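So, can you check these tokens?
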Amino acid sequence: MNFEIKDLFVAYGGIHALSGVSLKVQEGEIVCLIGANGAGKSTLLRTISGLIKPVKGSIIFNNNEIAGVAPHKIVELGISHSPEGRRVFAALTVEENLLMGSYVLKKPDKATMDFVLETFPILKERLRQYAGTLSGGEQQMLAIGRSLMAEPKLLLLDEPSLGLAPIITKELFTLIKKINLARKLSILIVEFHYKYR
């Protein structure tokens, strides 16, 4: 897996949201991009995911240019995005949310589902529960688990600590490291602040 952004510019009308951003994520690496609110962190992830088309610049994934490629194609190529604010499907169960994450596959992979439920055991206890009734930390675990169900090579995490208590944040980042090691998964995280060892 190779991933590189070169000289990326993104604008909303006449307002420049990103100007000349360049970065790399190597295979099996965790990279964290830290910035203030409004610095363009979420815009960067949305651009990688195909939700926003850049003005100019390059996004290379596995030696292919993906800037401007449709979002569903980006997921098929192997990039999953866990968005800011979790955005689970509140009216669906935990299990249904996880299955939605595997929509690009011909059928959900049982081994991947088992891995997600082993990594986040609270989700196994809540499979039949509606996602909207979960706590903030549980919803964040579900959002990450849903992203993993597509079997990505690169996982994008948009402020996973947002709105979580420090003890839950610490637990969550421990689990992110576990995922990275177990799956040899490349992860790009954007955060307002970052306390991780």
Observations:
- The helical segments are 41-48, 71-77, 94-101, 110-119, 121-125, 136-148, 166-183.
- The chain has one domain: 2-191.
